[in-house]
Amino acid sequence: MPLWGGVEAGGTKVVCAVGTGPDDLRADVRIPTTTPDETIGRIVQFFQRYQGDEPLASVGIATFGPVDSNPNSPSFGHVTTTPKPGWAHTDIAGIIQRELGMPVGFDTDVNAAALAEHKWGAARGIDNFVYLTVGTGIGGAAMVAGTLIHGLSHPEMGHIRIPHDRAADPFVGSCPYHGDCLEGLACGPALEARWGQSANTLPVDHPAWLLEAEYLASGLTSLICILLPQRIIMGGGIMQQPRIFPLVRQRVQALLGGYLQVPMILEQIDDYIVAPGLGTRSGVLGAIALAQRTAS
Amino acid sequence: MPLWGGVEAGGTKVVCAVGTGPDDLRADVRIPTTTPDETIGRIVQFFQRYQGDEPLASVGIATFGPVDSNPNSPSFGHVTTTPKPGWAHTDIAGIIQRELGMPVGFDTDVNAAALAEHKWGAARGIDNFVYLTVGTGIGGAAMVAGTLIHGLSHPEMGHIRIPHDRAADPFVGSCPYHGDCLEGLACGPALEARWGQSANTLPVDHPAWLLEAEYLASGLTSLICILLPQRIIMGGGIMQQPRIFPLVRQRVQALLGGYLQVPMILEQIDDYIVAPGLGTRSGVLGAIALAQRTAS
Question: Parallel, antiparallel, or unpaired: how do β-strands A129-134 and A138-144 relate?
């Protein structure tokens, strides 16, 4: 069986691994995200030094965005307009491919995580689903008939517009582009800015969680009305709060108001809006899944 | 070349036609939508009496919804929960298939119109696009990688939530399920209820059009952030207003705020948000396209 490499590139750290799936991650290293030169150099070194029984067939890169993930574009494989110092327009996939001399798969961290959830996690056997992550930012991916959405670019689900009652919540939103888009109202930094304390210190009975559930449910109703997904997977730091899943499910049902006569939503909502099957490993496993897809 | 039949079933009238595409619609009849028995009876009669050089290979039905368009469902081909008297749970596809003894294609009018635009109209050669119709209601369809979105059901894009500033626009919205969802704020009857006159009598410089463009653009930004479509086609009675396309394009760019660095949106918006290529014939041609897809 061939062996694959995976790179999960985040804003503060990079995880590199070698393996074939969730039950077989053979090596695993964390590298701080510093300059592109230093960081990519250490990624390349990790795979060059890896000595296994089999050689690597390919490497997958799941990275923070925005990226150019269109294989027909001249800047495919580049991080594009990120505010992260030094990283804008870095040809991360091209450099790694040239240095390692093997095929490289490439997509956003969110698209890769969705792919891993489809292959091994909460979306196994489900070809129409949404994967949403709610943390420092809000990102989303969706599969339609077995294909991840890639139109002009990858989805930017965090930036959809939702209702915002400024009388009830005068916070203007934290998104530098849109103010009170979904991410601007409901990402971790938005909670911290609104309530003056970090989301993970907000007590379970704090009104913050009801408002958070309302915003997330608003976003989900738009995703549902557009995609009618068969399942919605929600990950990220904010979703660790124990009350948030029940509150979101309840508000989604309330906001849809019985319009969609769909048993999954009306009767099986606990099985409809769910946590990731792969927990926090969906990113690095997504990178492995990208590598597999490239090699096959 | 085989010949196909198409049925465009609307709330007030049904159009039946026979042909192979936009340049070849050989017969064409309008039937008022009355009871299911009478209406379906007349549809069947039309096709039974049609005498052409070639026999019909199949018939496509593009109908008002909601419908069950999932081929694996026991109620596939049924109109489901429509408020239209007598039509709820009518097995329109099954009856026509049995009476005519030939394969029947079936989907919503909006999905069918999108299929026709893909085959012959404004989405030729474009495998990721949105088709939105703004009239008595707001309906939408989307193709992702060449496949129309069908998840748990067909899309219900009119019912997405959008920002609604009640200080600027105190109208509560016309949707019986959601009040101020996109359809509740921006469909034809919503305009009439808000301004006290029918949309087609509102003068070109009426403030209604700026507000309408704002709501439609809000909805489009959500569609764009989720699907990143390569083109958006907008049809329906409201889009006949001469100012509406330029206003919508302008507000979409403003609401996105330069976040998506995509030339199609930043530089070619006139070619990005466009009118249907098939005009008002996209419905009946969509039915013909459904028939072709079924026969092939």
Answer: antiparallel
CA distance A265 to chain B (A): 10
Per-10-residue mean pLDDT of chain B, 296 residues long, equals: 91 94 91 95 94 88 89 89 86 96 95 98 98 96 97 95 96 97 98 97 96 98 98 96 96 95 95 95 95 87
Cβ–Cβ below 8 Å for B140 and A226: yes
- For the whole model, what pTM was predicted? 0.95
* Residue B269, C-beta contacts closer than 8 angstroms, at least 6 positions apart: B249, B252, B253
Q: What phi and psi, each to the nearest 5 degrees, are found at residue A230?
A: -80, -20
Q: Do A178 and B228 touch (CB under 8 A)?
A: no
Minimum-distance CB partner of B264 among A81, A152, A163: A152
Residue B267, helix vs strand vs coil: coil
B104-108, strands of its sheet edge to edge? B24-32, B13-21, B3-9, B56-63, B104-108
Q: A258 and B229: CB-CB below 8 Å? A: no
Cβ neighbours of residue A206 closer than 8 Å, sequence gap 6 or more: A195
Interatomic CA distance for residues A143 and A133, integer angstroms: 15
DSSP string, chain A: --EEEEEEE-SSEEEEEEEEETTEEEEEEEEE---HHHHHHHHHHHHHH---SS-EEEEEEEE-SSB---TTSTTTT-B-S--STTTTT--HHHHHHHHHTS-EEEEEHHHHHHHHHHHHSTTTT-SSEEEEEESSSEEEEEEETTEE--SSSS--GGG-B----TTT-----SBTTTBSBHHHHHSHHHHHHHHSS-GGGS-TT-THHHHHHHHHHHHHHHHHHHH--SEEEEESGGGGSTTHHHHHHHHHHHHHTT-S--HHHHT-GGGTEE--SSGGGHHHHHHHHHHHHHH-
What ipTM score was computed for the predicted complex, to two decimals? 0.95
Distance (Å) from the alpha carbon of A88 to chain B's nearest alpha carbon: 13
**Quick check: A149 and B66 CB within 8 A?**
no
Residue A104, beta-bridge partner list:
A59
Task: Tell me how far apart the alpha carbons of residues A291 and A62 are, in angstroms, rounded to a whole number.
Answer: 10
